[in-house]
Automatic annotation (TrEMBL):
Keywords noted in UniProt: ATP-binding, Nucleotide-binding, Transport
Gene Ontology cellular component terms for the protein in this record: plasma membrane
One GO BP annotation of this record: D-alanine transmembrane transport
UniProt organism field: Oceanotoga teriensis
Residues that span the membrane, as ranges: none
All residue ranges annotated as the ABC transporter domain in the record: 2-247
Protein name: Amino acid/amide ABC transporter ATP-binding protein 1 (HAAT family)
PROSITE patterns for this protein: ABC_TRANSPORTER_2
Taxonomic superkingdom: Bacteria
Length: 251
């Protein structure tokens, strides 16, 4: 479904992603793991065109995304969450989630009071109610981010990513900063999304979560792929173990 082909991203002299190749299959949970600074978020940014890769291609359902804007990528069926929550503090939960949908309105400014726009708003409202029901945050729609626990805010971000009805979801550390219970809620959500037919590319440091939910795992270190396989293969891969041990020794 998603193919990453020879993607390279550099920042000045630093090559953050070096000729990365990866293939995410439809209907799977594919995890992308690796130590801090490995280039995982940078790869997400390249897929969603937040940054322009130096070279390479990103193909989604046989179509190149490389010349599209971030909004166009949402229309194509890809949404994401961010490593650092990017919610608007001055907006309630409903409006924050709505902001993930607004790109879907393809009409123009003159239609703002028209029937087309009203129909769009009704559809949007229904979608927001559906998604927040699924994520069990429907009772929080009028709250502001500052009034909510972190675990709920993470789910609000997932809800915002889901309102555009994406086929592929990119989650950047959805369990970071969460306690044990909140992490199991996230695990259940990820599994539920898969059973609803979504494809998920997951960046996550919580190995317990990664090993439990993933169909396939790709490991990056210093911008390069060092291993790929099913969870058991990755858990027993010597190079992967070395990279993670090195990280804990440095810490
Ligand atoms: N906008 C930027 N400008 C300069 N360097 C950057 C920028 N973004 C990332 N980098 C560098 O690129 C490398 C890869 O960073 P990236 O954030 O992709 O890593 P990561 O795998 O997501 O790490 P983490 O697990 O800590 O989130 C790092 O060395 C980082 O310092
Ligand atoms: Mg990151």
């Amino acid at each position: 479904m998603l193919q990453i082909k020879d993607v390279r991203v550099s920042f000045g002299g630093l090559i953050a992603v070096k000729d990365m190749n990866m293939n995410v299959k439809k209907g799977t949970i594919h995890s992308l793991i690796g130590p801090n600074g490995a280039g995982k978020t940078t790869l997400f940014n390249a897929i969603t065109r937040v940054i322009q890769p130096d070279k390479g291609d990103v193909i989604f359902k046989s179509e190149s995304l490389i010349n599209l804007t971030p909004e166009k990528i949402i229309y194509k069926g890809i949404s994401r969450t961010f490593q650092n929550l990017q919610l608007f503090q001055g907006m309630n939960v409903y409006d924050n989630i709505y902001s993930g949908f607004v790109h879907n309105y393809k009409g123009n400014l003159f239609e703002i009071f028209s029937k087309k726009k009203r129909d769009f708003d009704i559809q949007t409202k229904n979608k927001i109610l559906e998604v927040t029901e699924l994520l069990q945050i429907k009772n929080r729609l009028n709250s502001y981010p500052s009034q909510l626990p972190y675990g709920v805010l993470k789910r609000v971000e997932i809800a915002r990513a889901m309102v555009s009805d994406p086929e592929l979801l990119l989650f950047d550390e959805p369990a970071a900063g969460l306690n044990h219970n909140e992490t199991s809620e996230i695990r259940d959500i990820i599994k539920m999304l898969k059973s609803n037919g979504k494809t998920i590319l997951l960046v996550e440091h919580d190995m317990n979560l990664v090993m439990k939910v993933s169909d396939e795992i790709t490991v990056m270190s210093f911008g390069e792929k060092i291993a790929e396989g099913v969870p058991e293969e990755i858990a027993n891969n010597e190079e992967v173990i070395k990279v993670y041990l090195g990280e804990s020794e440095n810490a």
